[in-house]
LAO/AO transport system kinase
Amino acid sequence: MDVTQLAEQVIAGNRRALARAITLVESARDDHREQAIALMEEVGKSGRQALRLGLSGTPGVGKSTFIESFGMMLIREGLNVAVLAVDPSSSRSGGSILGDKTRMEMLSRERAAFIRPSPSQSELGGVARRTREAVALCEAAGYDLILIETVGVGQSETVVAEMSDLFLLLLAPAGGDELQGVKRGIMEMADLILVNKADGDLKAAAQRTCADYAGALRLIRKRPQDPMEFPKAMTVSAIEEHGLEAAWAEMNTLIDWRRENGFFDARRAEQAEYWFGQEIRHGLLRQLEREPLKSMIAGLAGKVAGGEITPSHAAADVLKALREGYGPSGP
């Protein structure tokens, strides 16, 4: 593969090339990883930036419907929108349905939109292993706004906040004890809480839920990157497209304030440092999957299962071997 040519096609806005580039960075093969690193270096020269929106919420809250309605509204305003939807992978088979695109029928037909579903595989935190690099590729391809939809499984989906400029939390009304259902972990990361399905019989319940969350947000310790009125809770209806323009206006208000006060660039710098650490951690884990450490671990695992050695002792032996260079590049 000619990485330079692929990078040029991505920067030129070629959708097929963008899809191929994302497939390349998602590959786990060592030779593909080397090409992916070179590709990211090339596309980084474009210097383009997009607004990155992370979106999380429990299953059934209407994330796909919201993204379609919100995306269509942005396209009508003349913006190009990319959607990176992370789909849960089976813990048994490892497969994913990847059906998010079929649920965004109108948006998927728009030339100004790009939708890419990806499997979460074994990754925690609601995003896929290479979602961050897929975001950078979409930026280089000229998209103005990138929506990152998480798996949608609960409180632990905060990793998306490390690759987005704004983190939106989508909630449904009348879901029981809402303040217990989504605890402080994810609420403290949210920049905007949107109570969806504020229409029909659920409209009154949505307004009550919104008021509950607005009160809860006032109890959370103030963050330096927020103006006085943020974070805040709002009601929206993805079906009736009610409240979407107001939510978009609030997003722009918050982003503009952060840009003016230096928090936008500072946050991106922090995120780059975070992902540098993550790359090191994943690289070290990959070392453990290669010979001869792989065989050593398998042997120790058998001894641990047989009660011949404690898990802590076995782990210490592996780490000692890794420190002493007993790996692919060692003796």
About this structure: The CA atoms of residues 223 and 231 lie 9 Å apart. The chain has three domains: 1-45, 48-261, 275-323. The beta strands are 51-56, 81-87, 113-119, 145-149, 166-171, 192-195, 232-235. The two ends are 33 Å apart (CA to CA).
